[in-house]
């Protein structure tokens, strides 16, 4: 088991198989020492995590959805690294999209669910630049979608 997966196990997290793309795109692109991971939607063990922040979902729901996206991002990273997730040098950037009403302004609090998880799991390697933006809707009605850029060795 890799060092990163050992830390995740201590956090009671097991990386799932990398989710398959839902349309005509690839789940990640590796170029040089960079991995660009396509947007990962909020999915949990019971399926897609649905809702609109500011209407049908709470900030706590959104935080959990963002954390779920981060787990899928790491699963994609592991696949991109041929199973050796310890090749990770650092998380470079997250771009988080929050399915929210026009009056909802706590997108950063929601995306903290991913950011806080990555820092807890990866330490300084998990610190990253970030954007957190509102979306009028997201694919399949999910609460959150996050894409990422990673540096690998």
Structure described in brief:
With 153 residues, the chain is of the alpha+beta class.
What does this structure look like?
The chain is α+β, with helices and mostly antiparallel strands and 153 residues long. 30% of the residues lie in helices and 29% in strands. It has three helices and seven strands. It has helices spanning 3-10, 59-80, 107-122, and strands at residues 28-31, 34-41, 43-44, 47-48, 88-99, 129-135, 144-152. It has a five-stranded mixed beta sheet with strand order 1-2-7-5-6. Strands 3-4 form a two-stranded antiparallel ribbon. Strand 1 and strand 2 form a beta hairpin. The longest helix has 22 residues, at 59-80. It is globular and about 40 Å long. 40% of the residues are buried. The model has no long low-confidence stretch (mean pLDDT 97).
């Amino acid at each position: 088991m890799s060092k990163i997966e050992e830390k995740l196990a201590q956090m009671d997290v097991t990386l799932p198989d990398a989710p398959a793309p839902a349309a005509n795109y690839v789940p990640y692109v590796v170029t040089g020492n960079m991995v660009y991971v396509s947007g990962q939607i909020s999915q949990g063990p019971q399926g897609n995590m649905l809702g609109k922040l500011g209407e049908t979902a709470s900030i706590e729901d959104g935080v959990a959805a963002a954390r779920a996206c981060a787990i899928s991002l790491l699963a994609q990273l592991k696949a991109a690294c041929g199973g050796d997730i310890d090749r990770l040098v650092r998380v470079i950037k997250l771009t988080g999209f929050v399915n929210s009403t026009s009056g909802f302004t706590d997108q950063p609090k929601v995306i903290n669910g991913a950011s806080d998880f990555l820092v807890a799991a990866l330490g300084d390697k998990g610190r990253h630049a970030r954007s957190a933006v509102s979306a009028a809707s997201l694919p399949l009605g999910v609460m959150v979608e996050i894409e990422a850029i990673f540096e690998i060795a």
